[in-house]
Design goal:
It is a single chain. The chain has 474 residues and is of the alpha/beta class. It has three domains: 2-273, HUPs (Rossmann fold), CATH 3.40.50.620; 287-413, Four Helix Bundle (Hemerythrin (Met), subunit A), CATH 1.20.120; 420-473, no CATH class. 47% of the residues lie in helices and 18% in strands. It has a five-stranded parallel beta sheet with strand order 5-4-3-11-12, with helices on both faces. Bound molecules: zinc ion (ZN). Residues 26, 212, 237 line the site of zinc ion. The site of zinc ion has 3 residues, from loops.
Length: 474
């Protein structure tokens, strides 16, 4: 199995140090409603986790919440509440949306506000070892603590930036007091009106980077196997995590595989520039959650791609094809006298192709194409009355297995077409059947009249194919 490791810049054979595989993913800063970028990141890592398990590697998956941060504090001011309340509200939003998308919950969630003693201890150790230094804080009473990047010669090994570029980057926020422009805050002295914790350096709170280092090591040990996150975190966040963790423990590398998910862009550039985003919640009002998940898996996790509503609509159709293929195959199987003893390997090639695709750096684009192939062949069988029941059974079982690995539920109840009332549904089904009968009798005028009635009364569009007529809401 091959994984692209940002640290080496290459695809590498995956070999965990021991079992279970220890996986840490940089989680949510709960400062607003989770958006499609979050959906992409967490679905991608969920699939990595599921696929490792499918391949026989047990996984311990840890993810954090940055539940205190400049941005949660800002949001609290804006919304006239506390940072803790802001964090709680949007963490609830995270669980609501990720549950809908079929993202399995982490084995352990870590919350920054629950790790203060460990964070303070690690900052103190970095000072004791000469990797960090204090400076007087703005209020003249409390102190700031900075990491001394010059004490970590490998700084830059993840992002491959040279010293000059990093110094130039750091100069965007010049701070004359720092020993080196690349140095970053481990502990920030308290500002008026902001939450603070007591520490050897007075009142303050931790910097973002040290939090992840401490929470990852506290839950998974000094070396982890897979560290995940968005590509936007490579520098400085993950670069800084490496500097802190490796300086603290002397264990290198801190993470054996750095696995970065590409960013999802919005089609409307102006929206992206104004800092707006599309919330998961708003998309799920019109798109079945498993179809959105399938859309996000349509490209490999490393790809940067642009969210396009038309492509999502096409993916809803693709997902329905999978659901309907499953239903037709089940019906065809139920109509046959079958013996469950018969075994078929009619679809062994599809399973092999799926595994080859996923073994190649979790290529979900290719893996979902393999499922399309399976669906086509399953539909072929469904149209043949005398097809082998063992083949049908094998195809159905494989469809369930592979969509299970990707976490794409084929539950027809998740289809928003079902968002009509039961009474309406009965009436719609009756009219569609009546229209099919009219078509069979070549009564085109009546069929057209019924099509119009379905549209006007229910906003229903009827689609005709060789297999019969189906309907959906406009
Ligand atoms: Zn992090």
């Amino acid at each position: 199995m091959q994984i692209t490791n940002t640290l080496s810049g290459r695809k590498e054979t995956f070999e965990p140090a021991s079992l279970p595989v220890r996986m840490y993913v940089c989680g949510l800063t709960p400062k607003n409603e989770p958006h499609l970028g979050h959906a992409r990141l967490f679905v991608a890592n969920d699939v990595i986790r599921r696929y490792l398990e499918f391949r026989g590697y047990p996984v311990k998956y840890v993810q954090n919440f940055t539940d205190i941060d400049d941005k949660t504090i800002e949001a609290a001011k804006r919304e006239n509440t506390t940072a803790a309340e802001v964090a709680r509200r949007y963490m609830d939003g995270y669980f609501r949306d990720m549950d809908a998308l079929g993202v399995r919950r982490a084995d352990e969630f870590t919350y920054v506000t629950q790790f203060m003693p460990q964070i303070i201890d690690c900052v103190q150790q970095l000072i004791d070892k000469g990797h960090a230094y204090t400076l007087p804080g703005e209020n003249g009473v409390d102190q700031d603590v900075y990491f001394a990047t010059a004490t970590f010669p490998e700084y830059g090994k993840l992002s491959k930036r040279d010293e000059e570029a990093m110094q130039a980057g750091a100069r965007i926020e010049p701070d004359e007091r720092k020993r080196d422009p690349r140095d970053f805050a481990l502990w920030k002295s308290a500002k008026p009106g902001e939450p603070w914790w007591d520490s050897p350096w007075g009142h303050g709170r931790p910097g973002w980077h040290i939090e992840c280092s401490v929470m990852a090591m506290a839950t998974l040990g000094e070396q982890i196997d897979i560290h995940g996150g968005g590509m936007d975190l490579i520098f400085p966040h993950h670069e800084n995590e490496i500097a802190q963790s490796e300086s603290l423990t002397g264990v290198s590398p801190f993470a054996r595989y750095w696995v970065h998910t590409g960013l999802l862009q919005l089609g409307d550039e102006k929206m992206a520039h104004s800092g707006k985003f599309v919330t998961i919640r708003s998309v799920l009002e019109t798109v079945p959650a498993p179809a959105l998940r399938l859309y996000l898996l349509g490209q490999s996790y490393r790809t940067q791609f642009t969210y396009l509503a038309e492509q999502v609509a096409a993916t809803v159709t693709r997902w329905r094809r999978w659901v309907e293929a499953r239903q037709s195959a089940e019906r065809a199987l139920a109509a046959q006298q079958t013996s469950a003893d018969e075994i078929s390997d009619a679809f062994a090639d599809v399973r092999e192709e799926f595994i080859a695709a996923m073994d190649d750096d979790f290529n979900t684009s290719r893996a979902t194409a393999a499922i399309d192939d399976l669906v086509r062949r399953l539909n072929d069988l469904s149209s043949k009355k005398d097809a082998s029941p063992a083949d049908r059974r094998a195809g159905l079982a494989l469809l369930d297995e592979l969509t299970g690995v990707l976490g794409v539920a084929l539950d027809p109840a998740r289809d928003l077409r079902r968002a009509v009332s039961d009474a309406d549904r009965v009436e719609i089904e009756r009219l569609v059947a009546e229209r099919s009968a009219a078509r069979q009798a070549r009564n085109w005028a009546e069929a057209d009249r019924l099509r119009k009635e379905l549209d006007e009364r229910f906003g229903v569009v009827v689609k005709d194919s060789a297999q019969g007529s189906t309907w959906e809401l406009k």
